[in-house]
Amino acid sequence: MEEFTVSQILINLVVAAKWTIILSAIAFIVGGIVGFGIMLMRISSIRWVKWLSLVYIEFFQGTPLLLQLFLAFFGISVVFGINLSPLVAATVALTTFTSSFLADIWRGSIEAIPRGQWEASAALGFGYFKQLRLVILPQAVKLSIAPTVGFLVQVIKGTSLASVIGFAEISRVATQINNVTLKSLLVFSLAGLLYFALCYPLSAWSQRLEQKLTYKA
Questions:
Q1: What is the pTM (predicted TM-score) of this model?
Q2: GO CC: one term (predicted)?
Q3: Tens-place pLDDT, residues 47-106
Q4: Which domains does the chain have, with CATH numbers?
Q5: Are 9 and 185 contacting, i.e. CB atoms less than 8 angstroms apart?
Q6: Which helix (H) or strand (E) holds 15?
Q7: 216 DSSP 8-state letter
Q8: Which residues, 6 or more positions from 1, have their beta carbon under 8 angstroms from its beta carbon?
């Protein structure tokens, strides 16, 4: 058993937290871009386009993130012969997972806009995409901010599952340190505090935004 001081354990976990933040940011940004496209498909009037988006959303929402990580890391290698690094595989899995939920959140925000807004903008001669850009999306964005920020917390927590494919984020490094030091309570308590430090400000901000928007409404 090797001795680690509390400061050494914390430093190693903070370094790992950097990768947790990087993975969360990549998954959220790329997932947001993909999710926006899926959301547009979901509200499309073309039935087969809407059906494809629904299948995508149902699959990635209806299967465990852990399974998606295994499919990205091992499945792509078997099917396509491409060996992905843990970071790339985790990014692929978390991006698809994130995009499916963001697409649903944003679709709900758009559908919450009164139908009269569509009809009024159509009466002004606006085309479909002009209606979205100038009338519908500005209102939907306000409704979606709070749940979107709230979901970011779930993405950060979800990165902990990437440890099973060897990605060195907080949970993975905490497990490695524990295997060396056998100080389970100390190591995982510090890891938990780091997750709390990352997630609580976002969670509190999400609740504050929701209360503010509810009050204005």
A1: 0.89
A2: ATP-binding cassette (ABC) transporter complex
A3: 999 999 999 999 999 999 999 999 999 998 888 888 899 999 999 999 999 999 999 999
A4: 6-216 (1.10.3720.10)
A5: no
A6: helix 6-42
A7: H
A8: 180, 181, 182
Rounded Cα–Cα distance for residues 42 and 138 (Å): 18
Q: What is the DSSP string of 154-193?
A: HHHHHGGGGGGGT--SHHHHHHHHHHHH--HHHHHHHHHH
- Each residue's pLDDT tens digit, 202-214: 888 888 877 776 6
Contact 135, 123 (CB under 8 A): no
Asked whether the CA dihedral 13, 6, 179, 154 is positive or negative, the reply is negative
Exposed/middle/buried for residue 30 (C-beta within 10 Å: 0-12, 13-18, 19+):
middle
Q: Classify 146 in phi/psi space as left (phi over 0), alpha (psi -120 to 50) or beta.
A: alpha
CB burial class (10 A; 0-12, 13-18, 19+) of residue 142? middle
Instruction: Tell me how far apart the alpha carbons of residues 54 and 49 are, in angstroms, rounded to a whole number.
Output: 9
Contact 96, 155 (CB under 8 A): no
Q: Give the contacts of 196 (CB within 8 A, at least 6 positions apart).
A: none
The whole-angstrom separation of Cα 197 and Cα 191 is 10
| Residue 211 tokens, joined | 């209360």
